Amino acid sequence: MRLATLLLLFFCSCLQAAEFKLLKNQVQQPLASYLYYYEDVHSSLTISDLKQLPETEWQHNNRQAFNHGYNNSTWWLRITIQNQETIELQRLLEISYPVLDYISVFIYGDNHQRTLELGDKLPFNERPTDHRNFVIPLQWQSNEELTLYFAVRSSSSIQVPLTLWQEQAFFNHDRTQTLLHGIYYGIMFVMVMYNLFVYLAVGERNYLYYVLFVCSMPLFLASLSGFAFQYLWPNYTRWNDQAILVTLSCSVMFGSLFTHNFLRAYELRGAIRYAGYSFAVISLLVIIMALTLPYSIVIRVLIPFAGVVCCYGFGLGVFRWYNGGLSAKYYTIAWSSLLSGGIILALSKFNLLPKNLFTDYATQIGSALEVTLLSFALAERINQERKMRFEAQQDALNTERELRQAREQALEIQKQATESLENRVQ
Question: Given CB 3.0 to 4.6 Å as the disulfide criterion, which of 76, 144, 220, 252 pairs with 140?
Answer without folding.
Answer: 144
